[in-house]
Design brief:
mainly alpha; single chain; 4 helices
């Protein structure tokens, strides 16, 4: 995710008419760090392990769906399916809320 985010940032900065890749880059870069943090927190028991892992996977899937949809549409003109980017965004929102729940219930295993 991090490498893809950097590549999309470079494409956005240097490509012609590629400004719409910047949001995809930002989502990948921010959520790459969040996925690593969720995994580390779950592994150390700071957050509820199962809920934290589910939230981490949701962040991964949501960011990939959002950024993949934006990049695919930019480069090919096609989208994976209607509303793919908003669906990815909604998955990320739910995953962040889930991670918050996991933090509130760290000892409840």
């Amino acid at each position: 995710m991090g490498a893809s985010g950097v590549m999309l940032a470079a494409a956005s900065a240097h490509g012609s008419d590629a400004g719409n890749l910047a949001p995809a880059s930002a989502m990948l870069l921010v959520h790459a760090a969040a996925v690593l943090a969720a995994a580390a927190l779950a592994e150390r028991g700071v957050v509820h392990v199962r809920i934290g892992v589910v939230a981490g996977f949701g962040l991964l899937i949501g960011a990939a769906l959002f950024a993949g949809s934006v990049a695919l549409r930019h480069y090919t003109g096609y989208r994976p399916f209607p509303f793919a980017a908003p669906t990815g965004g909604a998955i990320m929102i739910v995953s962040w809320l889930t991670l918050g729940i996991a933090a509130a219930l760290p000892r409840w295993k």
